[in-house]
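Researcher: Quick test of sequence recovery. Tokens follow.
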């Protein structure tokens, strides 16, 4: 006999869950049908109170990710388009959600809507799950009676955003992993290998070469003062993080981020692509340009870009175009500014922004591929140079001894 977890609907259409013992899945389905239940999900596994189920449930907890919102948006749009009532849609989404955090949020949204709140008002109570962009799009969809279409647009936008994030992570992850690996090897050599040579050198006596003395000194720091060095590094990281939380610190660090020699152009292309895609999607959904710019600024992810967008909004309120303040900011490339200017003049700003986003997403793809091919040999040279320096420093005194003997 095996234990089956089931989700089913009773004759009144209400979702019920539970568990039952059966020899096979077909027998479990038969038992449910005899009870008047229509199974919608049936899985074989341990009881909810067991350790296995607890581990599975724990793994499904955690913060809501973009991929989760993409799935919910797609399913939401499909069921709304099929004519299901909003409350029933929310109930189904909550029941089939795998993450406990999202399940709880959707149930709360369902309760608020049942109590008379609009969907927008219910979503606004959960800013950690549903961003300002998401809520604004839903508000536009409710106002225009196009909720299903808007949810499809949200899903498409979030899919592109998630894809962009994965590309940036893949570009940054490789050098981070190699650098960490190099650091661990260096610490191992300094803490374990170098002391062995140091004992030999102390027995031989004499003046050690400068490079050897530096490596031995670094070994002493790693072995005897690691707490001081670790505490100092932690203090620097915490200090930088606290400074980044301030307005001036965030702007300074974000500005430096865009000027990095290798990754700066990549981060700028990602920011431009995100700006163009978000603004295009909002305008297409019927969101007012001023409100759209507020949302784009809040989701920019870079203080310098955010500042330029806010100045653009203020300029539009004064009667200026979108392109001119963006050009004055000297952050956006001339091509982007010209295309936005043309889009404004011919009345196709939404379409032009979409083309800019497509172009820069392709540029990000090319940049990530180029960085991967460029960084790989650089990191190998760096790793080899670091280890080679330590090895050379250990053998220099031996070469000197051999020369004296000769």
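Model:
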């Amino acid at each position: 006999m095996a234990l089956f977890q089931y989700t089913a609907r009773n004759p009144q259409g209400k979702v019920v869950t539970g568990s039952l013992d059966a020899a096979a899945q077909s027998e479990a389905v038969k038992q449910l049908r005899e009870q008047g239940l229509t199974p919608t999900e049936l899985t074989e596994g341990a009881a909810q109170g067991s350790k296995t189920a607890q581990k599975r449930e724990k793994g499904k907890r955690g913060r809501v990710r973009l991929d989760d919102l993409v799935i919910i948006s797609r399913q939401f749009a499909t069921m709304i388009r099929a004519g299901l009532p909003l409350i029933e849609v929310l109930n189904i989404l909550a029941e089939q959600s795998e993450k406990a955090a999202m399940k709880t949020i959707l149930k709360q949204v369902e309760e608020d809507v049942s109590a008379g709140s609009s969907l927008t008002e219910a979503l606004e109570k959960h800013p950690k799950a549903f961003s300002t962009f998401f809520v604004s799009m839903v508000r536009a969809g409710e106002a225009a009676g196009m909720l299903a279409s808007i949810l499809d647009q949200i899903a498409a936008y979030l899919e592109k955003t998630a894809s962009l994030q994965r590309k940036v992570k893949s570009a940054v992850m490789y050098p981070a992993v190699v650098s960490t690996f190099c650091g661990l090897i260096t610490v191992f050599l300094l803490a374990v290998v170098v002391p062995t040579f140091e004992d030999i050198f102390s027995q031989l006596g004499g003046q050690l070469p400068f490079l050897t003395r530096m490596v031995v000194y670094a070994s002493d720091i790693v072995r005897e003062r690691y707490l001081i060095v670790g505490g100092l590094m932690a203090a620097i990281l915490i200090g930088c993080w606290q400074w980044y939380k301030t307005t001036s610190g965030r702007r300074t660090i974000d500005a430096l981020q865009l000027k990095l020699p290798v990754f700066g152009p990549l981060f700028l292309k990602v920011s431009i692509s995100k700006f163009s895609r978000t603004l295009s999607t909002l305008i297409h959904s019927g969101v007012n340009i001023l409100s759209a710019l507020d949302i784009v600024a809040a989701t920019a992810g870079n203080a310098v870009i955010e500042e330029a967008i806010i100045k653009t909004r203020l300029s539009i309120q004064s009667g200026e175009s979108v392109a001119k303040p963006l050009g004055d900011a000297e952050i956006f490339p001339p091509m982007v500014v010209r295309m936005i200017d043309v889009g404004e003049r011919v009345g196709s700003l939404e379409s032009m922004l979409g083309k800019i986003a497509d172009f820069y997403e392709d540029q990000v793809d090319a940049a990530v591929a180029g960085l991967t091919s460029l960084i790989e040999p650089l990191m190998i040279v760096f790793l080899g140079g670091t280890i080679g320096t330590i090895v050379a420093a250990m053998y220099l005194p031996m070469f000197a001894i051999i020369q004296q003997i000769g």
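The longest helix spans residues 147-204.
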